[in-house]
Design a protein that fits this description.
- The chain contains no helices and eleven strands.
- It starts with a strand and ends with a strand.
C-alpha cells in the first residue's frame, strides 16, 4: 500500500485548505483512515480518524473546524480544514490501519501565516 498526500500550502489565518490522501491497493475500504500532524519541535499528534463505517473522531483542538471524509470508490481520504490558525502549522500525514498493519503517507506541509 502506498499513500500519496497532497493539498498543503501557505494560507492566511482564518483561511481554508483541503488535504487529500490517495491510497493504492485494494484494502482502502476495509481500513480506518487517519490524519496526524507534526509541528516543528513537537511530537506527532492525531488530528482525525474515520472508520470503515465512516464514523469520525477529532482532536479537541480541531473540532468544529476540520472535517474528515472518505470516498471509497476513489480510495481517497480528505481533510477539510477551515478557520485555520497559526498553531495548525505542521506537516500533515495520512495513516491507514488495516487489521494489525498500518501505513503512512509522505506528509504534506501546511503553513498558516499572514
Amino acid at each position: 500500500v502506498q499513500l500519496q498526500a497532497s493539498g498543503g500550502g501557505l494560507v492566511q489565518p482564518g483561511g481554508s485548505l483541503r488535504l487529500s490522501c490517495a491510497a493504492s491497493g485494494t484494502i482502502f475500504s476495509l481500513s480506518a483512515m487517519s490524519w496526524y500532524r507534526q509541528a516543528p519541535g513537537k511530537q506527532r499528534e492525531l488530528v482525525a480518524t474515520i472508520t470503515i463505517t465512516s464514523s469520525t473522531n477529532y482532536a479537541d483542538v480541531v473540532k468544529g473546524r476540520f472535517t474528515i471524509s472518505r470516498v471509497n470508490a476513489r480510495s481517497t481520504v480528505y481533510l477539510q480544514m477551515n478557520s485555520l490558525k497559526p498553531e495548525d502549522t505542521a506537516v500533515y500525514y495520512c495513516n491507514l490501519k488495516y487489521r494489525f498493519t498500518e501505513y503512512w503517507g509522505q506528509g504534506t506541509e501546511v503553513t498558516v501565516s499572514s
